[in-house]
Amino acid sequence: MDNYIDIKLSENNEGIYDINIAENGDFELEDSFDTSIILSLGTDARASESEMPIPELRRGWWGNLYNSTKEHETGSKLWLLSQSRMIQDTLISANDYAKKCLDWLQNDNHLKNINVSGNLTENGIKLNIKQIRKDDRIKNLFYDLWERSQFK
């Protein structure tokens, strides 16, 4: 059976995530990719010139400058939608951006498949990230965009 080990994050009442520390002082681990998913969604990918014409507003994670493969950029472009009206087109773009930033989990053979579907809510968008493991076990992670998050 495959191991799915990641550092465990916990969300507090204000929507802030923090790393869990075990009693022995080491990072607490969990059998999931939840932390990898949260970091992929919450890290800003750099916008292209067509998406953001002003260079200093294109954002992006500095670690991508040192990515030797250039095949995958860490992060999502969900931040481009934070000022959008919550309409069907925004939902479609959010699903696409989220799926694209999470495809590495399947491409790097960590998961058999990863699916993203979102719903419009009165507070933003709720994403359902369905992780299909290589042993066909399924885990869902629900993630609220723009509600109590950095995406506001």
Task: Give a summary of the structure in a few sentences.
The protein has about 150 residues and is α+β, with helices and mostly antiparallel strands.
Report the major sheet: 3 strands, antiparallel
Determine the structural class based on helices, strands and strand pairing.
alpha+beta
As a whole number of angstroms, the C-alpha radius of gyration is 16 Å
Low-confidence spans = 148-152
CATH class: Alpha Beta
Number of DSSP strands?
Answer: 7
- Second rung of CATH, namely the architecture: Roll
In DSSP terms (H or I, runs of 4 or more residues), the helix count works out at 2
Strand content: 25-35%
How are the strands of the largest sheet arranged?
Answer: 5-6-7
CATH topology annotation: Nuclear Transport Factor 2, Chain: A
Kindly report the average pLDDT value. 87
The quaternary structure here is single chain
Defining key terms:
Nuclear Transport Factor 2, Chain: A, 25% strand, disordered C terminus, 152 residues, alpha+beta
Describe this structure in words.
The structure is a single chain. This protein has a 3-stranded antiparallel sheet, with helices on one face. The chain contains 2 helices and 7 strands. The chain has helices at 34-42, 88-107; strands at 5-7, 9-11, 17-19, 29-31, 113-121, 124-132, 138-145. It has one domain: Nuclear Transport Factor 2, Chain: A (Roll), CATH 3.10.450. With 152 residues, the protein is of the alpha+beta class. The model is unreliable at 148-152 (pLDDT under 50). 19% of the residues lie in helices and 25% in strands.
